[in-house]
Every structure is written in structure tokens, then in C-alpha cells.
Amino acid sequence: MKIAVVGLGYVGLSLAVLLSQNNEVVALDIVKEKVDDVNNRKSPIKDTEIEEFLKKKLNLKATIDKEEAYEKADFVIVATPTDYDPERKYFNTESVDSVLKDVVQINSNAIIVIKSTVPVGYTKEARRRLKTENIIFSPEFLREGKALYDNLYPSRIIVGDKTRKGEQFANLLKEASLKRDVPVLLTNSTEAEAIKLFANTFLAMRVAFFNELDTFAEIRGLDTKQIIEGVCLDPRIGNFYNNPSFGYGGYCLPKDTKQLLANYENIPNSLMTAIVEANETRKNHIVNMVLKRNPKIVGIYRLAMKKDSDNFRQSAIIDIIRRLKSSAINMIIYEPVITEPMFYNIEVINDLEEFKEKSDLILANRMEPELKDVFEKVYTRDLFERD
Q: Where are the strands (E) in the chain, listed by range?
């Protein structure tokens, strides 16, 4: 197959690498540096498996020329970013809209697969608007820093199309995976869109639950870890995805929960509203616990939300920084990814020892061994030292 992949973020790059094992793949992006990196077999994002696979013999080329990418493609996979617009109370899908329009004009026979997260009902409306049945939706379920791994060993493959087109795309993903007996589900497009939003909102609910458990224990002076371990011995709950944090963040959970809640307009709900509100409550609690300590200088250790990630988009610590700034708290930041001397008008110190020495209190969403020597300075809710 000839496949075009639009967008060289976690989703797009991992799919481009995955599918170029068995197919001819052209990856398209508007950022020339990313394109050059891929053509030089260098990963523009931090992902161990992607870095390793780029050293292998892949039928993969990157370009900034959309005509080159689309004109001969059998499939065009759209993995451009969409974000929740709080004013419109809807995802901003302009990047996806633009790609769909271009592909239909350049190559109307191509099957377009939307991997970007979109509002419930978007694919059906796009087919009507562009007068084509060649648009399908397939949700992705990837972790930052583990995107290719999660494509090689997928938990499930879901494609929002019950025709031959959907079956063909599901087979492409299945053939490229290394996992046997991958569950495959073909659904209608709108149901597939809903699956993505409900799945991520459930995960956000689980994060919020254990965070509120932790808030209770912290204020009451109880041992959170003992409570979580006891609760999670129930096999229906399970000992996973239960490590407290400063709040859920990242590419998916914040925007997907808000989008699902927006889709609930005029539909009775309590839980969906509470999940979104709980995350803000958690961040406020973390800030209050910092303020109680009355530190002179708060050190922010890393902005990335997860271990082994260099992405801090929508990271909970960013919102906490904003709240602390409004309380006139002096801060410094340790983040090796940032090369500029300032971030949000806060000094960035890339010498770890200097950072530790200057900080009265160190905020760490995730604990690392390099902080163990100043553990008495560290405020973290990371109890299991994992994500």
C-alpha cells in the first residue's frame, strides 16, 4: 500500500514508522525541522522504540509537499493536533478540516483515516460536507514516550467503519503489530468517536479518584499508600493506574474530558461534570499545601507530566505554576529540555545541584533517584515512583 501520514507528533510518527515496515509511507508535516529529522532517521520526539526503529530499513520518506504526499496514496492518515476551545466549547478541528479538503481535491480516491481526536459526530458531518464516503475514524490509544510500543502491542484496534474500507485499515494495523490475537472492533464512525472520549474520561476519572483519596489521607494525616494498596487488592479495582499525582494532564485527558462534557449539553449528567471539576480541585489543593509551608523559593522539578517524556503540553504542573505566580511565590525551574533562560518569566536553572541548593521546597510530580539526596525538601504525591 501507498500511505500518507499527516502530522509528525506521537500519533503520526509512530504510525508512519509502524506502517513503513510493510508499506510505502510518505509522512507530511509543516515543520521542516521535523521532516529533515525523519529523513535523516532521527526522531523529533522522545520515544525509545521510534528511535530504534528509525535505524532499521524502512520504506519511509518525509516531506512538506502535500501533493507529493497525497497524489498516489491509497490511505491518508490524519494525525494533526486538535485542541479543546473553551470559548466555542468544542474541539478546534481546523487542521483536520484543511487536510480533508486538500486530500479530496488532490486524490478523491484515497481513503482518509482520521486519527486526530474529534467531536462526536464529526466524521459523519465531514462526509456530508465533502460529499464522500471515503472518510473514516479510528481512535488511537497511545502513551507519550511509548507510542510505537503501543502500536506494536496494541490493546485493541477500533475502526469506525463496518465496510471493506474499515476492515482493510484494521488489517494494516494488525499485520504491522507484533502481538498475537489483537482484539479488533469495527463500529459506526460516531460510535468510534464516542469510544475514544469515554475511554479517556474513564481513565481521567480513575486518576481523579485516587488523587482525591490521597487528598483525604494527606489532610487526615493517614498513609495514602496503605489505603491504595488495600483498596486495589479488590480484583475488580486492580493494582494499576492508581499512583497519585498533581492532576491528570497531557495530550488527551484534559481536552477529551472537556469535549465529552460539551457533548453532554442538554443531556443529564453529574459524573462527567465532576471529573472535569475534580482535576481543578486537585491542583488547588496542591497549591494550598505548598502555601502552608511558606517557602521562600519553590523549585519546580521538571515540567513533563510523565517519566521518560519531553512533552509538557497541558501538564498539571503548568497550572500549578500559574496559581503560585498569582500568589506571588518565588520560583525557579529545572527542566533540561528548555534551552531559554526564562519560562513564564521564571528563571530556568539547568544545573541540578544549583537548583537543589537554591530551592527551599521542590515540587516534583514524579519522583526521581536524583532527588533522593534532598528528599526532605521534596513535595511529591508520587508514592509508587511510576506513572
A: 2-6, 24-28, 60-63, 75-78, 83-85, 90-92, 111-114, 135-137, 157-159, 184-186, 297-301, 330-334, 342-343, 346-348, 361-364, 378-379
